[in-house]
Design goal:
With 194 residues, the protein is of the alpha+beta class. It is built from nine helices and five strands, in the order βαββββαααααααα.
Length: 194
């Protein structure tokens, strides 16, 4: 899956180079390596390239973008992230070691664990479960089995309620935060999408 470049700085934009650049080398399929997905359309297309340290996502603005490639780097709030992604792609084409995604685009182990909890909470709620079931799934089962009056004032219930609320927010568009690298960027991207 490839995300729109205006939403995700991890998606690199390729366009045909201006005519004055006579020595631009075409990108051959062998240079790209492991193409996981490709979609061509009238506007150009999309490519997902597999790499051991993280997939590369390309948006081709024109069908001839691979014949005379140039990277388009919008000077927006995510400009530095886009530059890092462009450098990763350049190294990939040269056969050099590709660096990991920029830190701002990576999930920490704690963030990853939280997102797993959110998905579990959302799934439980979708099949009709409530905060008690979410608390049990989150490892707070000793409080979840308390009688109603005691359960009402537990930290486990408040934690489960927050998980459910955050899970709903994540599913209803909050997932776009992952592609932006930070919340302030996402707010500006989301205003352009809506």
């Amino acid at each position: 899956m490839v995300w729109r470049p205006e939403v995700s700085p991890a998606t690199l934009i390729l366009t045909p180079a201006p005519s004055g650049f006579a020595t631009v080398t075409p990108i051959e399929p062998a240079m790209l390596g492991n193409i996981l997905a490709r979609h061509d359309d009238a506007d150009g297309g999309w490519l997902t390239i597999g790499d051991a340290v993280g997939d590369l996502f390309l948006r081709l603005l024109d069908p001839s973008a691979l014949q005379r490639p140039a990277v388009l780097l919008p000077l927006d709030a995510a400009g530095e992230l886009r530059l890092d992604v462009a450098l990763r792609f350049f190294r990939h084409l040269r056969g050099s070691r590709v660096a990991l995604l920029p830190r701002a685009l990576q999930l920490t182990p704690l963030q990853r664990a939280r997102q797993i909890q959110l998905l579990i909470a959302f799934d439980i709620q979708e099949i009709g479960g409530g905060p008690r079931e979410v608390a049990i799934a989150a490892g707070r089962s000793w409080q979840a089995i308390l009688p109603s009056i005691e359960w009402k004032n537990t930290a486990a219930r408040r934690f489960a309620d927050r998980l459910i609320q955050d899970a709903e927010n994540r599913v209803n568009g909050g997932y776009l935060d992952f592609f932006c690298g930070c919340r302030p960027l996402c707010k500006s991207f989301l205003t352009h999408i809506d």
